[in-house]
Amino acid sequence: MEYTMTLPRSKQAAEGMVWAGVGACIAGLLLHRMWTVLPAGRFGEALLLAALASLLAWPLVRWRRMPWANALLLVWIGALVAMAGLLPALGVALLLAAALALGSLLIGDARPALACACGLAILACLGGWLAPLPVHRIWTWGPLLLALAAWRLRPLGDQLRTSLQAWNRAVLEAPRAAAWSVLALGLAATGSWLPTMQHDDIAYHLGLPWQWLTTGRYALDPTHQVWTMAPWAGDVLNGIVQLLAQSEARGPLNAGWMVLTCAGLWRLAAGLALPAALRWATLALFASLPMVPALMASMQTEAAATATGVLLASLVMEPLGRQGRSLRAGLLLFALLLALKPLHALAALPLLAWAALRHRTLLTSWRWPVAAALALVLGASSYTYAWTVAGNPVLPLFNGVFQSPYFGAYNFGDARWHAGFDATLAWRMTFQTSRYLEAWDGGIGFVLVALGGAGLVAVWQSRTRALALCALAMMAVPLAGMQYARYAHPGLVLLLPALVAALHAALPMPRLRWVLVGTCLLNLAFQANAQWMLHTGAIKRSIGLLGRDTPLLARYVPERVLAAAIRERAPDRGAVLVLSSAPAYAEFGTRGRTATWYAPRVEAARQVADGDASGRAWQALLEREEVTEILLRPTELTPAQRAGLQAAGARRMLSVGEAEWWQRPTGRAP
To answer: pTM, whole model, 2 decimals?
Structure first.
């Protein structure tokens, strides 16, 4: 069924609004001279990779008579396994199967993607409450997940067959659109091939997974990392798959979140009565967003929050029915958003308001307040532990209010991301992205401007109005407090089905096709501007290294190579202090030390020690913190630090690239 728009003005006026957005984007490209920041080399490499994937898929199309979409999907799955590793891929597959088994028990077998997300929510919340207990081993989580999958093996098989049948129908309905969309999604997923190298990941997010792997528990001590008890649902799930694989498995897990996002977008597009070709186009538009591959390469929460928010919106759009199951699904998804980050839960409140309006008969039921209370309890593990241990449930945020002794008595903030919230923000984030993200201009793509007119049409037409307003609110809520572009990503993705539906209502198909293809190509051309790893050609180098992480880490974050050497050669010595500008100390767990703002007490001691040219203060600091291993970059050392290492009798053990591992004698053999 095709949907036609009912507007108070003519369809020509709606088409005019669409072309006004396209014209504004062209004007912005010229005005801001965007060709000067175009990563042409990276775009060329992406096109070559797309050609290579197509070449590998061709024999399956030619001799196995597969549709191009299916052949390309197999190529991309094979590439992910080859680049990220077989065991990490199998670990994530087991986690998703167990989550699907668990979730379908609560909400039924008819909606596999929604059930899988609900199961992940249960596992993440359960793991959060159990995080500090010494129960996290492969022989605890492995049998538990295997038992869940085995218990529900037959329903899982049925759901898999049903999903494959639905996939094949969707491909047959629009084979060309499906092929191009799968090609774009595969390119976006290449970020999941890379090892973990992002600043926040190596300083914080890796902490919980590595502590679970090495000690079986998570230490609730914010002394050396003030974010220790920040919402941790994403890290819990990474910790589970790291236990299963016995190595980091971030990439395949992020690919799983991408699949769930696509399933949610498909459900939303179907709810808007879009034909199959435009449902595929919605997925292609999502894949083209520069932030997608950037999130695939990181442990940031936005990848999980995007999938969860989109699936929550698809649940709200469903016709009223199966109230108990839908309410359970809604509370689990909201609990997961809360457990990922308070900002995600806050941004999802407009969706809850829409749900209350759309399904208002539930408001008179006792189930609604009970579900709300359960969601808060499920998602509150990190907040509860932080309140109990540190006196601040959102440490280090709002510490001017809570006055935790583990951080300064002021409200944490970053002045870089307070450039002003006004009507021009979408334009400025698009063409001056470097002011709103650690990225290059164009690094969030051009949807906000190029399809800005379509956004007005989406708000105008009744069929898409609620979804468009919720998506815009989901973008505006986090940006109102801090103009940091990554926080807008979940809302932007949620807006895509409404934008495509608005284009479908306003434009004839040939013109619609040109607008969508042009926007996708423009996004793809600037995709590498979203993150430094993409911008510097890390994916090309990873392919050249056939997925071997060590040479890539040695080039970009050599401290991680030295960290592996310390775990192997000095596993039982004292603390490890990372002095270099790459704060790769999270993977050391309770042994890790930094002298930066993440550890205010040590940072204060460092400032004092740097004022003592004799080095004695630094020697005392090393002894007081029981530091025996030091990671440093010689070019970054201060004179006081050099003198302190000499006074402590430290000697160089190993160097990799710009980084070095030094060891302080303690009278014990390493």
So the answer is: 0.95
Tokens of 494: 């949620």
Give the C-alpha separation, 358 to 371, whole Å.
17
Query: What does 395-409 look like in DSSP terms, one character per residue?
Result: TTTTHHHH--TTS-S
Q: What is the pLDDT of residues 473-504, one digit of tens each?
A: 999 999 998 999 999 999 999 999 999 999 99
What's the rounded Cα separation, in Å, for the pair 268 and 191?
A: 25
Cis amide leading into 396 (omega within 30)? yes
Non-local (6+) Cβ contacts of 284 within 8 A are 177, 180, 181, 184, 185, 516, 520
Dist. CA 567–CA 213, nearest whole Å: 12
SS3 of 358-397: the string is: HCHHHHHCCHHHHHHHHHHHHCCHHHHHHHHHHCCCCCCC
Tokens found for residue 238 = 């990474």
CB 475 within 8 A of CB 492: yes
Angle, helices 153-173 vs 112-130, to 10°: value is 130
Please tell me the total number of residues recorded for the chain in this structure.
670
Q: Where are the domains of the chain?
A: 11-164+173-379+413-539, 557-663
Rounded-to-integer distance, Cα 7 and Cα 505, Å = 10
Model confidence over 277-331: pLDDT tens digits? 999 999 999 999 999 999 999 999 999 999 999 999 999 998 765 666 888 899 9
What is the Cα–Cα distance from 385 to 140, expressed in whole angstroms? Answer: 23
User: What is the bridge-based pairing of β-strands 659-663 and 627-632?
Assistant: antiparallel
Beta carbons within 10 angstroms of residue 649's beta carbon: 11
C-alpha span between 284 and 179 (Å, rounded): 10
Query: Which distant-in-sequence residues (6+ apart) come within 8 Å of 456 by Cβ?
Result: 17, 21
Residue 224's alpha-carbon distances to 217, 218, 356, in angstroms, are: 17, 14, 43
Contact between residue 436 and residue 428 where contact means Cβ atoms under 8 Å apart: yes
Cβ neighbours of residue 385 closer than 8 Å, sequence gap 6 or more:
131, 132, 220, 229
Helix (H, G, I), strand (E, B) or coil at 200: helix
Report d(CA 218, CA 235) in Å as an integer: 11
Task: Name the nearest CA neighbour of 397 among 349, 342, 347, 344.
Answer: 342
